[in-house]
Design a protein that fits this description.
Blueprint (H helix, E strand, L loop, with lengths): L5 H63 L3 E7 L2 E6 L4 E9 L9 E4 L3 E3 L4 H10 L10 E13 L2 E18 L3 E15 L4 H12 L5
Antiparallel strand pairs: 1-2, 2-5, 3-4, 3-6, 6-7, 7-8
Length: 214
Amino acid sequence: MSDPAPETKETRAAEAAAIRRRWISLGEGVAVLAVAISALTLYLNWSDKRDERADRSAEASKASARAAKLVLAASSVKADRIALTPADPAQIVQSQTIAFPSALGLAPVDTSGAPRIEADWFAAALKKARDAAKLPDESVGDDRLPVAVTTRFTVDGEGHESTALYDIGYGIEGGWIAGHSLTLRGIAHVSSLTPANAQAALDARWARLSAKRP
């Protein structure tokens, strides 16, 4: 049996080399593809974590903003005293400053601890202001006295401050012989304020509420 022609050997050798090159190329391609898949997986994981962090940060910001917004409500109402409490139980009041309309001629009242409104703080001045505004000697209890309340409070140990306009509901009865008696009815949140515009907003609301009725 004769040996294959030299051309045939060379052809087979060339084909074998070409096959090896194809396998090498295929292996390199698979390796490159694996690296690309790994890189894409890492990127997607990083992107997902980044989005999760962004979502958590946004939720934390919203929660912080909600926590910093204080609305006071009456926890109990007596004739001469309204006990106040934050609508959000996570908020703990440290102190308050209650400002009155300029027409009453009163200095702000500072409290520490239990937040409250007391009739003795403003009863006499309110009666004089009502006389000056020519309001009736008596009311059935639907009259309102605006006050600006600045509250310093904490949420999870973090300090906040909030200033807001509130209406104190009250009734007044009696006469010039026995004197007038002021009865507190409750408190209602009107609007949020900034310290800079609190007194102006307070005086403007008193002017509207105390305007002589037709």
